[in-house]
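Morning F.,

Quick status update on the modeling queue. The single chain you submitted on Monday has been processed. Sequence for confirmation:
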Amino acid sequence: MKILIMGLSGSGKTFLSKLLQKELSCAWYNADNLREMANDWDFSNEGRKRQSLRMKTLANFEKENGRLVICDFICPTKEAREIFDADYSIWMDTIKESNYKDTDKIFEDPENFNLRISRWDQYSPSKIASLIKNV
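Structure tokens below.
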């Protein structure tokens, strides 16, 4: 299963991913780490689509080998989310503005998601893991 944790920069995607990775004993890919490995810091529309495809390729590899995988990245547009094609999506809707105004401007609130987190006390990591396992 491919799990997408999306939201604005600073919304808690990576923090939640670290906790869930332990709860689920699964693979985890972080967007900043992958951009660093690829030396690709292009945040244009094309660069963002390339990042979604990069994340999808790695997530599909894990899924095809029977592993659960978490990918955390902003994934700001409907098109980027369609490219990634998550099996389960968590929207970290904990902030309305980030330090990156250009990203804030293009971020489209997702229409399709499995879980929306708007407050940190809304769900425990074990509760979120349980919701994912019961899909």
